[in-house]
Amino acid sequence: MHKPAVTVTADLTLSEASRVLDDRKVGAAAVLDSDGRLIGMVSERDLLRSVGHGIDPTSTRVAEVMTREPVTVSASDPAATAVDIFRQRQFRHLPVLDNGQVAGILSIRHVVRVAHIEEVRPAGSAPPALAPRGLEGVAVAETAVGDVRGEEGFFHYRGYDAAELARRCSFEQVWHLLVEGELPDARQLSAFRERTVAGRHLAEGIDPILQQVARLPGYTPLGALRTAVSVTAAALDTRATLDIPPDEVRADCLRLASLVPVLLMRLHRHHHGQPPVHPDPDLGYAAAYLQMLTGERPQERSSRALEQYLILTMDHGFNSSTFTARVITSTGSDIGSALTGAIGALAGPLHGGAPSRALAMLDAIGSPERAEDYLREEIRSGQRLMGFGHRVYKTDDPRSTLLREVATELGGPQVEFARHVEATALRVLEELKPGRRLYTNVEFYAGVVMNSVGVPRDMFTPTFACSRTVGWTAAIAEQAANNRLIRPSALYVGPPAPRPVPQGYALAR
Ligand SMILES: CC(C)(COP(=O)(O)OP(=O)(O)OC[C@H]1O[C@@H](n2cnc3c(N)ncnc32)[C@H](O)[C@@H]1OP(=O)(O)O)[C@@H](O)C(=O)NCCC(=O)NCCS
C-alpha cells in the first residue's frame, strides 16, 4: 500500500485535489476531516467523471464528488480480504485503517503484485476445454473444399472421388473445381486455362532476386520457393484479404498458384547454373512443369503420370499446411503471407518430407533378394519403413493405389523392384506389427513415379508444394469469404500467476 496515505480535505477544489494526486503520483486520496478522521475517498476517476459531466473543477469541492463512508480494510487483514472487496465492489483503491487512523491506501495493483489471484471469468463460465494433443479428431472449421475418410480409404474434392478425378481429368479441370467450386465446361475451361497461362509471367524485377536466392549457401528448393513466393507477393502488391472483395482474393490466388511452378523451376535451374526455360503457353500445367525442368517437351505418358500425381496431392482434408494457410488468412493478411506460411508448414518432415526417403529405402535395399532381411531388421531395430503407415488411413491409401497403377504403366525395373519391396514389407509388417493396420501410403509410389518421369529427388516435396498450392488457395478463398479470426486459447500450466518480480531486480541489457 501507499504509506503514509495521501490525504486531502473535503473543502479543496477538484483542481487542487487533482494537483495533489499528480504530485504524489497516486490514483486516489483519503479525505479527512479536521480531526484527521476518514470521511471519504476521492480518486482520479471521480475527478475525471465530474469534468466529463461539465462540472467546473475550479469551483467544485471534493466534498461534492467523493465517495462517502468508504469501505475500509484493517492493516491486519489478510490480502485475500482486500482481493475479495476489489473483486466484488469493483473498487480500485481501499483505505487501510490502523487503530482507527488511515495508515495507507491499498490499490488493486499492490494486491495483484503480491497475491495469487484466481483468474476472473464471467459468471458461470468454465475454463476452456483442452483439445486432444495435435487436435486429432477435432473439427475446427467448416469446409466445402474436400474431405478424407480414413476408415473407408476415400478422399474427395468437393464431393467427387479424388482418385476418379485423377483418372479422368486434367490438372486444370480439377484446379477449376477446387477454386471455382465446379467442374468446368469446355468454355469455362478454355477461359480458365488462358488465365493460368497468363498468370505464369514473372513480376517485374523478380528474376535477379531468384538468381541470388538460388546461390545462397543454405539453399534448399523448398526454402528458396518459400522466399520466392514471399518476394513475388510483395512485387505483385497482393493486398490484405480483409480489404479486397472475394473476386480479387480468387484472382490473386490464381496468379500466385500459376506462378509457383515457374518460380520453383527458375530457382532450380539458376541453382544448377542453367538458363531458365520459359513455360510453353501451349502446354498444360504438368507438361509445362517438366518442360521448364528439362528444357524439352516431355513425352505424353510422362506428363500424364506427373499430372495424375499432382491431382492426387492437390488437397487432403484439414492438413497442417492448409490449417496454417487458413489461420494466416483469418487475420485478414494477404495471400502471399498465407502461402509462405503454408510452404513453411509443408517443409516439416512430419508433413511433406518423406517421398525421397522412401526412394532412399529402395536404394538401401538394393536388390530384391535383400528385401526381406533388410525390412525385418529395420522393424526389429525400431525403425519405420518409409512410405508405410498413415495417421488417417487405416486401410489402403487411395493415392497409393492409383500411383501404383501409374508407376506400373510407366514400367521399368525400379517399378518391379518397388512392387516386390511393397509386397514383402506388407507381409513383414503384418507379422511383426500385427493389428497396427499399416498399409502403403502416398509417398511410396510418389517417389517412384516422380523418379520415373525425371523429377530430381530434392524436387519431390517442392513438386508436392506446387500441387498443394491449389488446395491452399481454395482454403484461403473459402476462409476469406466467410472469415472469423482463428484465435484459440491455451491452458496455462506454468507457475501460478501473477508472480512478483524479485525485489531489486533491475533493468539490465
Ligand atoms: C505416417 C506415420 C507418421 C503415422 O504415424 P502414427 O499414426 O502416429 O502411428 P503410430 O506412431 O501411432 O504407430 C502405431 C504403430 O505402428 C507402427 N508403425 C507405424 N508406421 C510404421 C512404419 N512405417 N513402419 C513400421 N512400423 C510402423 C509404430 O511403430 C507403432 O507400433 P507400436 O504399437 O509397436 O509402437 C507413421 O506411420 C510413419 O512414421 N510412417 C513412415 C513415414 C512415412 O511414410 N511418412 C509419410 C506419411 S504420408
What's the short story on this structure?
The chain is 50% helix and 8% strand. The protein has 21 helices and ten strands.
Percent range for helical residues? Answer: 40-55%
- The total beta strand count reads 10
The N- to C-terminal Cα distance equals: 30 Å
- Report strand order across the widest sheet: 1-2-3-4
What form results from the Cα inertia axes?
elongated
Task: Enumerate the spans where pLDDT stays under 50 for 5 or more consecutive residues.
Answer: none
Report the sheet-strand fraction.
Answer: 5-15%
State mean pLDDT (0 to 100 scale).
Answer: 93
Structure keywords:
10 strands; 4-stranded mixed sheet; alpha+beta
Description:
This protein has 509 residues and is an alpha+beta fold. Helices cover 50% and strands 8% of the residues. The chain is built from 21 helices and ten strands. The protein has helices at 14-24, 44-52, 62-65, 79-89, 108-114, 162-168, 171-180, 186-198, 206-214, 221-235, 246-271, 285-294, 300-312, 320-330, 335-346, 355-365, 371-380, 398-410, 413-432, 442-452, 460-481; strands at 7-9, 28-32, 38-43, 67-68, 73-74, 93-98, 101-107, 146-149, 154-157, 160-161. The strands form three sheets. Strands 1-2-3-4 form a four-stranded mixed β-sheet. It has a three-stranded mixed β-sheet with strand order 5-6-7. A three-stranded antiparallel β-sheet has the order 8-9-10. β6 (93-98) and β7 (101-107) form a beta hairpin. α6 runs antiparallel to α13 (300-312) and α15 crosses α21 (460-481). The protein is elongated, with a radius of gyration of 33 Å. The two termini are 30 Å apart. The model has no long low-confidence stretch (mean pLDDT 93). Bound molecules: coenzyme A. Coenzyme A (COA) is lined by residues 354, 379, 384-391, 433, 436, 438, 441-443.
